[in-house]
Amino acid sequence: MVKIAVVGASENLGREILGILSENDVSVEDVIALEPKSPLGTLVSYGEDEDLDVLNLDEFDFSKADVAIFACNLEIAKRYLPKAAEKNVKIVDCSGATATDENVPMIVAGLNDSAVDDAKKNIVSIPCAIVTQILKPLSKVNAKYGLVRIVASAYLSTSFHSREAMDELFSQTRKIYMNAPIVDDEEIFKKQIAFNVLPQVGEFIGEETQAEWSVNVEIKKVLGGNMKVHANLAYIPAFIGAGVFVNAQTAEDVDVDEVRSIMKETQGIVVFDKQLDGGYVSLNDVQGENDIYVSRLRSDLSVENGFSFWTVADNLRADIARNAYDVMKLILKK
User: Fold this and answer.
1) With a cut of 50, which residues of the chain have pLDDT below it?
2) Between β-strands 306-313 and 242-250, what pairing exists: parallel, antiparallel or unpaired?
3) In a 3-state reduction of DSSP, which class is residue 268?
4) Residue 225: what pLDDT?
5) Close Cβ partners of 326 (under 8 Å, ≥ 6 residues apart)
6) Residue 111 near residue 224, CB atoms below 8 Å
7) Which 3 state secondary structure label does DSSP give 20?
8) Three-state SS for 149?
9) Residues 328, 110: contact at Cβ < 8 Å?
10) Whether 268 contacts 110, CB under 8 Å
């Protein structure tokens, strides 16, 4: 059987990937959980009834794995990904370490599957959660109408940053209710995140942030061509999930009713769109869900051939873990 190594198995994303593997009946004997400097005896849950030993990444021989999913942070991936590549392991990189490598295709499963043939190094990369959430509903729409411009305004939960960021939101919220000062709990975001919206995701590089630049670059890498992209990203006081308003423009005349029908036929997309109070999907509705949800689909009359929609998803599970699993199956077939 195929041996699957998950680097970063104890982190939020790693746990979601383990959950996806378990749900798809991958045997616990075929999964290897890895963390740097992992003490002997460390365990991580696998499915409802089983546990995995978390092995020390520093000592692991990657020749024992057939495929490695890097669900860790950028620093760890840059250090250990070359060691896996040296052993000719097939690699699915969720960290962004290979995002700008021209020899590493970036794939949104169901949109550009054939790009796996360009994986000269046996490495494929996964775009950031927001890019998957934007592009997957548009996959079949792009094939029919041809996308030329995307404007995305995304509202991200603290899980996009880290577990420590989620803890900071919890701590600030608790202290506000207790009428206690929160100045000592403004370390991750530098400003209050509880009951607030912060229009900065990542460090500034010129007029935009690192995350906004990444969304721009990754959308263009996945779609190719002369795409025009503009992204606005903000953190909101939520623990899991992301909501994105997407304005799309196509080369051909677009029919919104047909777009709705096409999205309904797209695997992994659920369209729930009613023009009444509560007839849409919110972040609280999608935690733990594998699908990406679309609401508020309508014409954008400010441009030719334009339409817009609202999309929400569990950023760790639906946007990255699910995509990583589907892309892993593609690279294993290669």
Assistant:
1) none
2) antiparallel
3) coil
4) 73
5) 109, 110
6) no
7) helix
8) strand
9) no
10) yes
Question: How buried is 123 (Cβ within 10 angstroms: 0-12 exposed, 13-18 middle, 19+ buried)?
Answer: buried
Beta-ladder partners of 70: 7, 93
What does the angle CA 101 – CA 34 – CA 222 come to, to the nearest 5 degrees?
A: 25
Tokens standing for residue 125: 């990369």
Question: How many degrees, rounded to 5, is the angle at CA 260 between CA 303 and CA 318?
Answer: 105
Looking at this protein, which amino acid is placed at residue 212? E
**Which residues, at least 6 apart from 206, have a Cβ–Cβ distance to it below 8 Å?**
none
Q: What whole-number distance in Å separates Cα of residue 306 and Cα of residue 153?
A: 16
Contacts of 109 (CB under 8 A, 6+ apart): 323, 326, 327, 330
Other Cβ atoms within 10 Å of 253 Cβ, number: 8
Q: 0.70 cut: is pTM over it?
A: yes
Residues 6+ apart with CB under 8 A from 284: 241
Name the nearest CA neighbour of 306 among 251, 230, 242, 238. Answer: 251
Do 71 and 92 touch, CB atoms closer than 8 A? no
Please report the sign of the dihedral spanned by the C-alpha atoms of residue 231, residue 236, residue 239, residue 244: negative
CA 193 vs CA 116, 189, 196, 211, 280: distances in Å = 39, 7, 5, 18, 25
Which residues face 298 on adjacent strands?
308
- CB contact set of 166 (below 8 Å; sequence gap of 6+): 158, 159, 239
Task: Give the per-residue pLDDT at 232.
Answer: 98
CA distance 222 to 249: 17
Q: What is the torsional sign of CA 4, 108, 244, 137?
A: negative
